[in-house]
Amino acid sequence: MDFDLLFKELKEEITELAKDKFNEQGIAIAQDMQEYLAHSKEKLQRWATLFKAQSIDKDELVWLLKSQKELLLLKSLQNIGVSSISIGHFKNKIVDTVLSKIVAQV
Fold first, then answer.
1. C-beta separation of 94 from 12 below 8 A
2. Per-residue confidence band for 52, with pLDDT thresholds at 50, 70 and 90
C-alpha cells in the first residue's frame, strides 16, 4: 500500500466533497481540511497498516476513524452559519471517504 498516494487522493477527494456540498464556501474550508489531515496523518497511516496486516478488522477501523471525527473542527463552516447538523453530516461523509479509501487500498 502506498500511503502517500492514498493520503494525496484523500486530500483531493475531501476537498471536492467540500466544494460539492458547500459550493463557494467549500473553498473556505480547505484550510480546516488540511489541518485535520495533517493532524491525523500519522494515525491514519498506522491504522491503515494495522488493517492491511489484519491486526484490526473493519469495525475496529470504523470505530477509530469515528473517534477522530470530533477533532475535525470546521471553523470556517461555523463562521458562515452552517448548521451543526449539516456539519455533522459532512463529517460523516469524510469518515466514510477515509474508510472506503483505506479498504480499497487493501
1. no
2. very high
